[in-house]
């Protein structure tokens, strides 16, 4: 899994693999994260530019 430390489980997606060359899709991202690799904040959350930690709720 390539989940940036925000998920412990993943599954394989052939579609993602065909588009990107890797098919790892993280399951149950934590820290208000989303995306195939927990690489971005969920809608309504943000991350400070110099932080790799949890995403914070928008005000």
UniProtKB/TrEMBL annotation:
<dbReference type="InterPro" id="IPR002049">
    <property type="entry name" value="LE_dom"/>
</dbReference>
<dbReference type="InterPro" id="IPR050440">
    <property type="entry name" value="Laminin/Netrin_ECM"/>
</dbReference>
<keyword id="KW-1015">Disulfide bond</keyword>
<protein>
    <recommendedName>
        <fullName>Laminin EGF-like domain-containing protein</fullName>
    </recommendedName>
</protein>
<feature type="domain" description="Laminin EGF-like">
    <location>
        <begin position="26"/>
        <end position="58"/>
    </location>
</feature>
<dbReference type="InterPro" id="IPR056863">
    <property type="entry name" value="LMN_ATRN_NET-like_EGF"/>
</dbReference>
<dbReference type="GO" id="GO:0009888">
    <property type="term" value="P:tissue development"/>
</dbReference>
<keyword id="KW-0325">Glycoprotein</keyword>
<keyword id="KW-0677">Repeat</keyword>
<dbReference type="GO" id="GO:0009887">
    <property type="term" value="P:animal organ morphogenesis"/>
</dbReference>
<keyword id="KW-0424">Laminin EGF-like domain</keyword>
<keyword id="KW-0732">Signal</keyword>
<dbReference type="Pfam" id="PF24973">
    <property type="entry name" value="EGF_LMN_ATRN"/>
</dbReference>
